[in-house]
Amino acid sequence: MEKKKNGGKNVTVVDCTIRDGGLINKWQFDDKMVRAVFQAVNASGVDYMEIGYRASEKMFPPHEYGAWRFSRDAKINEIIASENLNMKLGVMVDIGRVDEEDILTADESPLSFIRVATYLKDVKKAIALANMAADKGYEAFINIMAISTVNDFDLAAGLKEIEKHAPVTAVTVVDSYGALNCDSSKHLVAVFKDNLDSKKVGFHGHNNLQLGFANTIAAMEAGASFCDATITGIGRAAGNCPLELLLTYLDDPRFDIEPIFQIMQDEFVELRKKIEWGYLIPYMITGMLNEHPRVAIAVRNSEEKDNYADFYRKLTTPECYSN
Amino acid sequence: MEKKKNGGKNVTVVDCTIRDGGLINKWQFDDKMVRAVFQAVNASGVDYMEIGYRASEKMFPPHEYGAWRFSRDAKINEIIASENLNMKLGVMVDIGRVDEEDILTADESPLSFIRVATYLKDVKKAIALANMAADKGYEAFINIMAISTVNDFDLAAGLKEIEKHAPVTAVTVVDSYGALNCDSSKHLVAVFKDNLDSKKVGFHGHNNLQLGFANTIAAMEAGASFCDATITGIGRAAGNCPLELLLTYLDDPRFDIEPIFQIMQDEFVELRKKIEWGYLIPYMITGMLNEHPRVAIAVRNSEEKDNYADFYRKLTTPECYSN
C-alpha cells in the first residue's frame, strides 16, 4: 500500500495486546504467551506497551482473574527477566478499581507509565488519578471512553479541565462502541486538539465497522500522534486496530514487523481456537447503532450467536410503543 | 456511525456476492443458496446484481464448475421464477473467455447489463467486448483490474480510449491485490474522473488491509458513484467491501438491510464452515507487498496455512541475490 508520507516519525505506537485482549478471557493468558508477546513487541520497535490493568485484589477476586487484571510489579519483572527494555512499559487503571497502595513509586517499579481510563462524566476523578500517578513518578495519560456518546460541548469542557489540571502526555479518543467512521474520528481529534494546547492526542479504534485501522489513519491525518493497536487486532468484541497494519502503514525504519508475524504464527493461531474476536455481525450491529457491545457479547455467548437478523430486530424494534 | 450526508442518493450499489464469492468455490453454490441471495438483494433496494460470470462452456468444462461460471439465461430465469425484479441483473465477462454466441440479445435475456473485466494492457479488447454487449442491447461497463500495478500515464491513455470508443455507463477501479489505502483510492478515482468526461467512476475494493469498506468511502468522497459490495464481504481471498456496511453507511431510505441480515443468518453461517474468506494474514502480506493473492491462496490451501512469518520471509527474501 501507499505509505504514510512522513514515515510515521511523529507517531507513537502503543501496544495493548494483553491489556485489551484480556477483556475477552479475564486476562487468563499463561506466562509463556505473555512473555512471547512482550518479547515480540519489544523487538518490533513499538514505543509503549500497556501490559495489563492494575487493579486492587480487594475488588477482583484473584482466583477469578488472570495475572494481567492486576499486573503486579513482581509479575512484570518475571516476564521481563533478563531482556533489555527497548520500550516503555505501563498499565491501565480504572477509576475506583485501584487503591493508592496498589501503586508503588516509579523508581520501585518496572513500569514507566500509567493510563487512566475514564468516561467523560468522571473526568475530575480521572484527573485526580493521573495526578497521583504523576506524583509517584510515572508518565501519565488519560483515555476517554465511549466517545461516540458525548456531545462536543461537554467534551470541550472536560478536555479544558484536563488541559488545566492533569499532568498527562496525551489524551486518547476511545471509540468503545466501534461506532465512528473516518469523518467522525477526524472531527473528534480536532475537538481534542482545539482544547488541549499542551497535550498530544491519542486514538484507540475498534473494528465493529471494519474501520479500526482506517479510523486510526484518519485520526493521524487530523493530528493524533499517539495510537493504540493490538497484534491481530485482538480485543473485546470486534477488537482493535491491528498492530501489523499500523506498523506497515507507518513504514518507519525503527519498526520491524517480522517478530509480530512470528508471534502470530507461534501463539495466536492456537489462541484463536480458544477465544473469539474480530468483525462479527452482532458487533457490527451494535457499532452501527452506537451501542455498547455488551449485548452483542452476550448473544455471541448464547445459542443465538449467529441469529443476526433476530438480533437486529430485537435491537431496533421499539418495544415500548406497545405500552 | 455518522452517516453519509447526502444519503447516498448519488451512489449506485452493485452486489457481486455470487460472482465474486464463486471465485472461492468455482461457483458451486446450490440453487437454494443463489435464489436466497437473489431474493435478499432484490428485497434490499440494491440497484444492480451481478449474478455470475458468463463464460463459454467450450473453455470451462461444465463438470468442473458451478452454474455461475456460465450464468446461462435459462438458469437465471429459474432463479428469478415469479419474483418481480426491483433491480438490474447482469453478468461479468472476461476477455477471451466468452464467445459472441454465448450472448443473446438483451430482449431475449433476463439480463440488462454486462461488465467487462480487463487488465489495462487489454483495454482495446475490453472496448470491443463492451461494444458487442452494447450492440446487443445491454448496458455495458468496464472494470479495470490490478489497478495498483499500473502507472498514471498508461492509465490515462487507456481511460481516454474508453472515453472515446466504449459506450459504457461506468468504468470501475478494481483493487485486485487489496493494496490500496484511502489516499491511493482517492487518487485513482481522481485519475479516472479526469479522463472520463462522460462516464461514471466505479470502485471495487478488497479487504487485505481491512480497508475494503474504508477505501469505498474514500472513493465515494473522491466522486465514485458506482460501488461494488458483497454480503459479509465474501469474495476471493480477503474478500470485498461488505454490503451490510455500505448500505448502513449510505443511509438511504431506499435500502432495507434486514433481508441482508436474514440471509446471513440463513445461509452464510453454514457457508463459512465450508469455504474461507476475509482478513487473514497471508492475504494481508500480499496486500502490503502489492502482489496478486494467488501465492497467499496457495499457502492457505497447504499445511503451511498459518505459518505467517515463514510466508512473509519467503516473499521478502531476495533469493536471486545468491546468484
The CATH topology of the largest domain in chain A comes to TIM Barrel
Strand-pairing-aware structural class of chain A: alpha/beta
- Largest interface pair: A-B, 47 and 47 residues
| Proportion of helical residues of chain A | 40-55%
**Overall number of domains of chain A:** 2
Mean pLDDT of chain A: 95
Strand content of chain A: 5-15%
Overall radius of gyration of chain A: 19 Å
Question: So what's the oligomer here?
Answer: homodimer
Indicate the CATH class of the largest domain in chain A.
Answer: Alpha Beta
Q: Quick one: how many beta strands of chain A? A: 8
Q: Order of strands side by side in the largest beta sheet of chain A?
A: 1-2-3-4-5-6-7-8
- What is the helix tally of chain A? 12
User: Which blocks of ≥5 consecutive residues of chain A have pLDDT under 50?
Assistant: none
Cα shape of chain A: globular
CATH architecture grouping of the largest domain in chain A: Alpha-Beta Barrel
Q: Give the helices and strands of chain A as they follow along the chain.
A: EHHEHEEHEHEHEHEHHHHH
**How would you sum up the major sheet of chain A?**
8 strands, parallel, barrel
Q: Give the termini distance of chain A in whole angstroms.
A: 54 Å
What do we call the CATH homologous superfamily of the largest domain in chain A?
Aldolase class I
